[in-house]
Amino acid sequence: MSNFWVRTLAGIVFLAIMVFALIWDRTLFACVFVTVLVQSLREFYDISLNKRFRVQRFLGLVAGGASFILVSAHCFYGWDLRLLTLALIPLLLIPASCLLLPSREHFGDLAYIYAGLLYIALPISLSPLLMMDGIVFDGWFMLSLFVMIWCSDVGAYCIGTAFGQRPGARKLAPDISPKKSWWGFWGGIVFCVVAATGLHFLTWLPFPLVHCIVLGVIVSVFGVCGDLFESLWKRHFGVKDSGACIPGHGGMLDRFDSSLVAIPMACVYLSLFNLI
Amino acid sequence: MSNFWVRTLAGIVFLAIMVFALIWDRTLFACVFVTVLVQSLREFYDISLNKRFRVQRFLGLVAGGASFILVSAHCFYGWDLRLLTLALIPLLLIPASCLLLPSREHFGDLAYIYAGLLYIALPISLSPLLMMDGIVFDGWFMLSLFVMIWCSDVGAYCIGTAFGQRPGARKLAPDISPKKSWWGFWGGIVFCVVAATGLHFLTWLPFPLVHCIVLGVIVSVFGVCGDLFESLWKRHFGVKDSGACIPGHGGMLDRFDSSLVAIPMACVYLSLFNLI
């Protein structure tokens, strides 16, 4: 099978799993997203962390996975939120376990454990809070945010390819991601705002139109920031793809890099206006 | 004034401020502890972070301070906990702001921003949750935990000085903290358990005696872990004191290194047994 078909098929399967997980069932959502969290975090640690920190890496993965599972259990099944203190155990064992390290070499790398938790595990762990409408599981809002990110990516790709690769077209961040142009950046915003407007009229985004438009701009701009930040991180460590778990598409973290910054920022905006 | 008197006086003033903040008034508590948080975090960043990350460092301090203030406002004045999403803004601006960095040099240092937030800001930000008994401000439980840590330190110092410095006495972690001996470690535990038992009979620790004894062991052991972890961190970056903000006593982080691990661990234990 040629690379093109592998890539297309993997893309469709990935998309189908994502959409079903978001709209079908809370348990399916929890299973899919805990996998996304743990796999993204593993890739982040594989990129950054020295192999010596095996125990600390494991504790980081447990802390991240446990936070998500306990927030999900609270939102979906009414478990006491105080159980979230359980996730503190692996987190506090990280400094304690360092005393068992055979030497102090690369000790500063330990910070990557914490960085992964705040950059990857925190946003994903907060996601179940957005998945309930009263006592009904309702992922249409979250799905809308993902649709907006995908539209932004498609817009950036189309407009960027059509206008941004001509000689003289200004690049967005030539040091970090040589292909990205300002044409693509503005194209992404336009597509994302159009998508947000469409989703508003579809009633998937149940907010006043003006807020939907602002949301489109926020999602697109911070999506690009998230994408560039991950590229910067990979370049710093001399890595091209974060992993290879989705055939033809690279790693899990590569697929969620925009969302990790854009979706929380969108939710902060909506929360400031008391809309969620 | 000789160094001894400066040190003694500063110690007494520091202790008085701490005790008053814990038992007197919620606003005083919030002011003192937000200072402790921000100052400890500043020292942590001064130790670890390259000077180029001025903006990101500032965002980290704002995120840490804001989390504490918003949790306090929730616990003490009934503000909506959803306002905590505000603390996400500086946190999410950290990756976004990195795109403005003039070069990618030392880019991995950025992880220290996140590490400080989870290691220092998270435990201190959770502390207001322990400071209310219904609608009454009640810091006696937290004060008891600090008293236990101080007793453990005194015990470790006395027993360690008396028995641990003799030739042949085994050292706890000669690479990290050459003076600490196993004698001091066990002495700290004994003093801490005795303190916990005393506090139980004083009714400051309103839990069954057996839990108070276990609490004494946990506080002492994880206090030592926290202390050694901070020493390890300082040694890695070639620093002796974390700062000099308390005359004769070094930095703020040096004063709270044990508490940052021991107090959350004690609370996780109590929470597991439904005691808090």
Describe the structure.
- Two copies of one chain form a homodimer.
- In chain A, 68% of the residues lie in helices and 1% in strands.
- By secondary structure, chain A is an all-alpha fold.
- A two-stranded antiparallel ribbon of chain A has the order 1-2.
- In chain A, α2 packs antiparallel against α3, α6 (140-164) packs antiparallel against α7 (182-201) and α6 (140-164) packs across α9.
- The longest helix of chain A is centred in the C-terminal third of the chain and has 28 residues, at 209-236.
- Chain A is globular, with a radius of gyration of 20 Å.
- Chains A and B meet through α4, α5, α8 and α9 of A and α4, α5, α8 and α9 of B.
Features:
homodimer; 276 residues; mainly alpha; 9 helices; 2 strands; 68% helix
Q: Which consecutive residue ranges of chain A, at least 5 long each, have pLDDT under 50?
A: none
Radius of gyration of chain A, in angstroms, nearest whole number = 20 Å
* Secondary structure: number of strands of chain A: 2
Shape of chain A: globular
Please report the number of helical segments of chain A. 9
Tell me the major beta sheet of chain A: 2 strands, antiparallel
Strand order of the largest sheet of chain A: 1-2
SSE topology string of chain A: HHHHHEEHHHH
- Structural class of chain A, by secondary structure, is mainly alpha
- What oligomeric arrangement do these chains adopt? homodimer
Largest interface: A-B, 45 and 45 residues
Proportion of residues in β-strands of chain A: under 5%
> How much helical structure, as a percent, in the residues of chain A?
55-70%
Mean pLDDT reading of chain A:
91
| Cα separation of the termini of chain A | 46 Å
